[in-house]
Design a protein that fits this description.
The structure holds two protein chains of two kinds. By secondary structure, chain A is mainly alpha-helical. Chain A has helices at residues 3-11, 16-37, 40-57, 66-87, 97-103, 118-131, 134-144, 150-157, 161-181. Helix content of chain A is 71%, strand content 0%. Classes of the chains: A mainly alpha, B mainly beta.
């Protein structure tokens, strides 16, 4: 079934929409969640929440790209789930490595912590990502959007794990400069 | 702002960019072999490490060369990845392919007083009778970012000074290869290579090695642009290791 037809089912409030979405993108979203949570059961649960959230969001939302729309919902739920687990000290530290790495881009004495605009930050990050060379952009997205490990990224793009780590290090430096230039840090 | 804000902002990256990253562009390195490199080497080493090493992994410094070599003793087969990545801000790759090679010589010139974890040597490889490779690499275990290597393909039977290599279809001629030696100990500490291209552009790639832990910080320290080589970004941005 085409995405547009599935979206149409959501608009008709036909519960088959969830079934079709799950059939088409359930495994993909589970992989997205597992990269973050490293736990099959939690990931399954996360995908179910994501499908529920999709059901509640569409309509009024009308996603042009259903796969990415659902992936982003899944990712956010998984991140929140991970943070909750960490708060309860229930493990999940592996998935948190990417979070820690991004801390490098933000000075510890961030004087304007309260004053930034989240929407502006999103635009700025999007602009930063677009302007990266393709290779770096893909690696950045695989690491910090999908939370894939350097090893997994290396296998995807035929790089060594070390090289991926070096490239990520450079990207974080660039990101730090970008955020400074844009006044976010 | 904190890293959490950053993570969620990254979560709003445009769909098409995310989808583009889904592709799996593993490289067809056979297709890339037409882009060939040539050239030179350097020296150095760490005696025990060279003999015992079973794994060398060198990460680029100065965005110049990235090389991996897995193997051990003389006589081993190696698979070397030449991956010469140009300037940091450029996505331009001038060569990227794997070459299976046979190690015929693993030469250690002298003890440079390297610390534990350092591995320096010159390795000469035979690409199964077709090419002779002379390679320098080092493995500073404590910091990958400081690693450096130069790997060149030297056609069999040629002198280093005759070496030609190609970037973007333009042949560059190595016109000078000059090993430098430390006057105090006689240790090799550097190699200076001058390349000449197309009769108009000339530039110098200079690599220097010192002894001990300072070695790494001196490598590929300067590239002097004699004339306009702006097309060759690889030589424009050299990191400052200070």
């Amino acid at each position: 079934m085409k995405d547009s037809e599935i979206v149409e089912l959501y608009f008709k409030r036909n519960e088959e929409a969830i079934e079709k979405t799950s059939e088409k993108y359930g495994a993909y979203c589970k992989a997205v969640a597992e990269n973050i949570l490293k736990n099959p059961e939690d990931s399954e649960e996360c995908v179910n929440f994501a499908l529920l959230q999709l059901w509640n969001s569409v309509p009024p939302e009308k996603p042009e790209n259903l796969k990415m729309f659902l992936a982003k919902i899944t990712r956010n739920i998984a991140i929140n789930n991970l943070k909750a687990k960490l708060a309860e000290k229930r493990g999940g530290k592996e998935g948190f490595a990417a979070f820690d790495e991004l801390s490098e881009c933000i000075p510890s004495k961030n004087n304007i912590e309260e004053s930034f605009d989240a929407e502006e930050l999103e635009k700025s990050i999007n602009c930063f990502t677009k302007n990266l060379p393709e290779k770096e952009r893909n690696i950045f997205i695989r690491r910090y959007f999908f939370f894939e490990s350097p090893k997994e990224i290396g296998e995807r793009y035929a790089f060594s794990e070390n090289r991926v780590s070096v490239i990520l290090h450079r990207i974080r430096k660039k990101l730090q400069k970008h955020l400074e230039k844009e006044g976010f840090v | 702002m904190n890293n959490n804000d950053l993570i969620f902002a990254i979560g709003r990256i445009d769909d098409e960019l995310i989808e583009a990253s889904e592709q799996n562009p593993k490289r067809n390195f056979k297709a890339k072999t037409s882009l060939l490199i040539a050239a030179v080497l350097i020296i150095v080493f760490s005696v025990t490490a060279v003999a015992a090493a079973s794994f060398f992994n060198t990460v680029n410094s100065g965005n110049l060369v990235f090389m991996e070599a897995v193997g051990g003793y003389s006589g081993d087969s190696y698979q070397i990845k030449f991956d010469i990545d140009v300037a940091e801000d450029s996505d331009h790759m001038i060569n990227d392919y794997y070459v299976p090679m046979y190690l015929i010589e693993n030469e250690a010139w002298t003890d440079c007083g390297g610390e534990a974890g350092e591995t320096y040597n010159v390795m000469t490889f035979d690409n199964y009778g077709e090419n002779l490779f002379a390679i320098f690499f080092q493995y500073p275990a404590w910091n990958y970012d400081n690693g450096a290597s130069i790997a060149y393909n030297v056609p069999a039977g040629t002198e280093v000074s005759e070496t030609v290599f190609e970037i973007d279809g333009e042949e560059l001629y190595c016109i000078e290869f000059q090993p430098c030696f430390d006057g105090y100990r006689g240790d090799p500490f550097g190699t200076r290579v001058v390349f000449w291209s197309d009769g108009y552009n000339m530039f110098v790639l200079e690599t220097r090695l010192n002894t001990g832990s300072e070695v790494v910080r001196e490598i590929i320290r300067s590239v002097e642009k004699v004339n306009d080589i702006s097309d060759y970004a690889v030589y424009k941005e050299i990191p400052d290791y200070e």
